[in-house]
Amino acid sequence: MPQSKLYMHKVERDQLTGWPDLAGRIEGKVHVLPIRVYYEDTDFSGVVYHANYLKFCERGRSDCLRLLGVHHNELHGTASFVVRRMVCDFLKPATIDDVLHVETRFIECAGARMELAQQIKRGREKLFEAKVTVALIDADGKPKRIPPDMSKRFLSRVESKN
Amino acid sequence: MPQSKLYMHKVERDQLTGWPDLAGRIEGKVHVLPIRVYYEDTDFSGVVYHANYLKFCERGRSDCLRLLGVHHNELHGTASFVVRRMVCDFLKPATIDDVLHVETRFIECAGARMELAQQIKRGREKLFEAKVTVALIDADGKPKRIPPDMSKRFLSRVESKN
Amino acid sequence: MPQSKLYMHKVERDQLTGWPDLAGRIEGKVHVLPIRVYYEDTDFSGVVYHANYLKFCERGRSDCLRLLGVHHNELHGTASFVVRRMVCDFLKPATIDDVLHVETRFIECAGARMELAQQIKRGREKLFEAKVTVALIDADGKPKRIPPDMSKRFLSRVESKN
Amino acid sequence: MPQSKLYMHKVERDQLTGWPDLAGRIEGKVHVLPIRVYYEDTDFSGVVYHANYLKFCERGRSDCLRLLGVHHNELHGTASFVVRRMVCDFLKPATIDDVLHVETRFIECAGARMELAQQIKRGREKLFEAKVTVALIDADGKPKRIPPDMSKRFLSRVESKN
Predict the structure, then answer these.
(1) What ipTM score was computed for the predicted complex, to two decimals?
(2) Which of A150, C63, D8, D117 is most buried, taking the most CB atoms under 10 A from its CB?
(3) In order of start, what are the domains of chain B with their CATH numbers?
């Protein structure tokens, strides 16, 4: 699909819905997604249930890819991204009604794999962070090289280390 | 699939796993599934999050069908059961560590539809009840007549009203 | 809490976060909340898992109350809203990447109870609808009269039937 | 609480429910919990949603503690266990109707912290594994030394490395 058509697709789905920030924003090299904590996210201990931070991160990755023009539906059938590894640090608890920010950064992209760094913050407080390894697999579950035009889009978002 | 093969399938998946009651039990006309309340099921108000009772009911229906020899995997591709309507009464709250019983009863089965009555209890206390309408649909989402040998198995479990 | 302070609270939590529509919008008598369908919301049949529509509705109710100045944290300790009854019709399936709208309308508010009507739409297509009975309960789980200044705010949003 | 009373508590809650294996079994040094994969656990890609393996692990830890006589309700109010860190490897996908086994092993227990190793298997296939760091915290969220009689019970389950 040519870049222009991808862009139209994105415009149609996100901007034209009338909710311009529904998929968050790309600010420089970082994708930021706001998330409200609802009843469903908490547990009886009074705070967000630990596994739900992984859901929040997945929403962040999905919307980051969306804003870069990569849609689940387009990939699906032929290939899909799956999580291979997550190193998760649960630093501080979030509570009901909180507005959180999921920050997603590309660290590396090579072959069939991507490395991402994700953080969940409440204002300036870091509540959660994760290193995430994602792989592209084909319909048989075998690793598949990330298409060059796609990896190019990811790599353009990698922060230089200098 | 002949009844005997269905039975072997059930035996293989449930009895031979070494956890004989994992899919609950059919006691007379009623299927009973025990469910433990874990952290994930509760919310910050201290009790089970309301939508999770619907998950518990779906587990009950799945395991009831399983013990009657109807497996998701067999149906899938050609047809699947979907929930059309649920009338849900949330009577009393369940809390962490509770052992609940999901009771599933067939009320009716005709054409593409089944009516079920489900209750969630803690001991003798009724905490939740629902009337559930389930429909069989084909791959295009259109209603599909429940195969006679399947509806026969369901109807044999309907309590007579006399 | 005086109306002005409630308003400041709302402003602080929602407008000043930099994500003005995070809690949706009140359009006339209807609260509208946009919701994106993510991986977590779907199941292996390819569409949104039925119980998750109840989660979407709860998000809609929470944000509707939020925009009317009623916060979970304020009520909690002394009282909280619980769902007593839901009559749910599952009309059409939603799929991954869909943008849905949860519409919430107040139907009635008397004593300890509120009746709401909720719909989930994709564009003009209605996918799900529910009648919801919510009750205010005290710390012991007993019904508690909805405070007059609160019910007044709800009733001002009830559509007249003429 | 004396050991005998803890045991009675366990007996009452688990054995006397009539579902003897509901909390799994301790086999030597390993706690094993069987888990059925239901609709709710899968996503539209056809397999179990990645974050749900963390839920399965939490069920395993809860039931392991339960069989060792440690109940959420007893700790709560004064202290609770929280997950600090999880290193998760997603090896192979699980699918609907699968029977999985969550294996939980104690690795270390010192001060306010416990290290556990968890695996999720389908038969002999390892699908998921995690190293989990859990901390005991008091009502203010501060680390709290694990009581000696409790850590003794955990340490008695640590496999010797020889």
Answers:
(1) 0.88
(2) C63
(3) 3-155 (3.10.129.10)
